[in-house]
Design brief:
Shape: globular
CATH architecture: 3-Layer(aba) Sandwich
Order of helices and strands: HHHHHEEEHEH
Number of helices: 7
Largest sheet: 4 strands, antiparallel
Structural class: alpha+beta
CATH class: Alpha Beta
Helix content: 40-55%
Strand order of the largest sheet: 1-2-3-4
Strand content: 5-15%
Number of domains: 1
Number of strands: 4
């Protein structure tokens, strides 16, 4: 796949000589989409192809972002939304791109917001106490989300 949105990630991997970035072949990503009957945004597919089984700058922030683990976390997040009676907060198809605390805090994208969608954060457990603090946009695009993780990370930890 031609890299359009994840150029900074691709450059980061090359510049830091990270050859084991655990990218997922596009054919595998497409099978995963078919299995779940969803269509990932292009930026997310590029991410998965370059580093989809885990990427240290993002996982170091405490948020897991491995494509295969996120299916489980996505289902757990949906169950948590229901358990905490906040399922009406996320009103359309979404995909969890990062989670902590057993999916009680999630970062997610809506699947219908373009090729490089905004990223949102939701603190499910504390939403009822303070909705404005617990839910909102955390990046204007998925590529910005990844770029910020790269900018904030010290690559010495990748070794």
């Amino acid at each position: 796949m031609l890299i359009t949105f994840m150029q900074k990630l691709e450059e980061y991997l090359i510049e830091n000589n990270i050859t084991d970035s655990s990218g997922i072949p596009l054919s595998e990503i497409e099978r995963f989409e078919q299995k779940l009957n969803i269509q990932f945004p292009r930026a997310y597919k590029e991410y998965a192809e370059l580093a989809g089984k885990g990427f240290r700058p993002i996982s170091a922030s405490g948020l897991s972002i491995s494509l295969f683990y996120l299916e489980e976390y996505h289902e757990l997040a949906k169950a948590n939304l229901k358990e905490y009676n906040v399922e009406n907060v996320i009103t359309k198809d979404f995909w969890v791109i990062g989670e902590i605390y057993g999916s009680l805090y999630i970062n997610f994208i809506y699947l219908d917001e373009g090729d490089d969608p905004p990223v949102y954060g939701l603190d499910i457990e504390n939403y009822e106490d303070d909705p404005k603090e617990a839910f909102g946009k955390i990046a204007d695009s998925f590529s910005e989300y990844v770029e910020q993780a790269i900018d904030d990370y010290d690559p010495r930890y990748d070794r």
